[in-house]
Amino acid sequence: MSAWIGRALILGLLVFVVFGPLANLALWAAAEQWYFPHKLPLSYGTKFWEQVFKPRGDALASLMTSVWIALSTVATCLALAIPAGYALARLKLPWRSAILLAFLLPQAFPSVAVYINVARIFYELKLNGTMAGVILVHTVHGLVFAVWITAAAFAAVDRDLELAARNLGASGLRSFLTVSLPLAAPGIMASAIFVFLESLDEFTGTFFVGVPDVITLPLLMFTASIAGNYQIAAITALVLLVPSVLFMLFIERFLKADVLSKIGA
User: Fold this and answer.
1) Tens-place pLDDT, residues 92-118
2) Residues 6 or more apart from 82 whose CB is under 8 A from it?
3) Which of 13, 60, 124, 216 is an S-S bond match for 66, by CB 3.0 to 4.6 Å?
4) 257 pLDDT band (50/70/90 cuts)?
């Protein structure tokens, strides 16, 4: 009995750690009046939802900006990652491990220090405050996921299928387009969603490169929380949470263990 009680307490603690912040976000998103020392909101309503999603509100414009930047980042990353991933998976490249490691370098250094210097360089190139500059910064981060997962997806494709297509008279390009690419498509789609969510949630790079002309939803959430508009910040946080939940469902469905095992192989 004591063992079951201990397990129940641990499970309850884990549930609280995971769902406690989400419950707090939901309360703030539904609260119209909530202040200390009250433990729960004094009144509930949709006033702040209407304020966030009004036709001429900043939230909708910021959401459209975020989605457009994320889609552009995905297109740019895939244009680079598909040929790079295929080459890393199929060709006997010298320094292959070093090349894969190089794509991790943007994650290896403190982001604030990196973006301060990036902003200085972009200012000289007149890329500060432009969509192109923000997309370029997001692409550098997104290539980490795009190249590694795409390389793993192509490595999971059986080489014999490509050889069979070549023996039947297909050219290298045709065998790639009709055999390798369709079979690797689930992994490529998963990498695209990784990149999309990374770009959608990116704050630091957008702040240093895009402000004040490019305002995304994470920037709007940060501004609202700093100003004490916790309801608006909670609503925008919940909006950003929806793609992440859908992403987890998609990954569970399409990105299998046999593909993940090929990463870095």
Assistant:
1) 777 777 777 777 777 777 788 888 888
2) 150, 181, 188
3) 216
4) low
- The pTM of this model reads 0.81
Neighbours of 45 (CB within 10 A): 13
What domains can be seen in the chain, in order of their start residue? 1-45 (no CATH), 51-260 (1.10.3720.10)
Q: Which residues contact 33 (CB under 8 A, 6 or more apart)?
A: 41, 42, 43
Mean pLDDT of 227-253: 80
The tokens for 33 are: 């009046």
Q: What is the pLDDT of residue 264?
A: 45
